[in-house]
User: What shape does this take?
Amino acid sequence: MLDTQVVVVGAGPVGLLLAGELRLGGADVVVLDRLEEPTTESRASTLHARTMEILDSRGLWDGADSPASDSRGHFAGIPVDLTLPGSRPGLWKVPQFDTERLLARWAAGLGADVRRGQEVRAVTDTGAYVEAGTGDHVVRAAWLVACDGEDSTVRRLLGADFPGHDARRELLRADVAGIEVPDRRFERLPDGLAVAARRADGVTRVMVHEHGAAVPVRTGPPTYDEIVRVWKRVTGEDVSEGTPLWVNAFDDTTRQLTHYRHGRVLFAGDAAHRQPPIGGQALNLGLHDAFNLGWKLAAEVTGR
Assistant: This one.
């Protein structure tokens, strides 16, 4: 006997949007996530025009909560005005914790069963159904969708082929309070590349790459001191007095699953493809994956 029709692994933005879409299509869904609580980090903080249109279509923004937009874009360093016809032109600055909060509330309101503190440790595809084991219990479903990020546990457990290209360069980034630096839109400098974008709340997102720096093998985020040193070498500016709210590093690794379906297991978001997340590319692409897959999978499991 099945416990649910679909089990989604990962309660980030992609998994939560997928869960809501499945419920809209009439499918029962359980979402499993290893974290006890939702993220409080800003992480991916840019939503694109099409993504905002998708969220609008589900009633996720009302007039009071609608975020601020930015019409400034660029292509290959060339400024581009993103003010185009449409309901949501430009780029929309939304911290990831706000996106997750909205999607979690929406999905739960539609009846999605989100279970936190549940780390998937085993996946078994019998051909007739799939089981997700978390150590203390098993969830049995007709389908499993892995939305568990670029280091996907499900992908590893299945040994899914994930070909692509290794990193050649790394960028460090941080959200920092209490600093005053010039606004930079991917400014190319003699010793590297720098970005600085101040939010309405006074916090500045800084991002920096140093030319010629080796890509390290990291087991955790960089320290803020490391970011301070690299920022100083590249820009000549001292940001050591700032208060870091979030620090992170990413690189330009690119990979994509050979097949997005493995039996009764499907993949979406960073679990299916990895690319530099600059400009919210990873988040927005993942949300589009979920929006596209949700109604199709719901139709499959409900027979509609």
Notes: The helical segments are 13-24, 49-57, 96-109, 153-158, 224-235, 281-302. The first helix runs from residue 13 to 24. The chain has two domains: 4-45+95-163+254-302, 168-251. The mean pLDDT is 93.
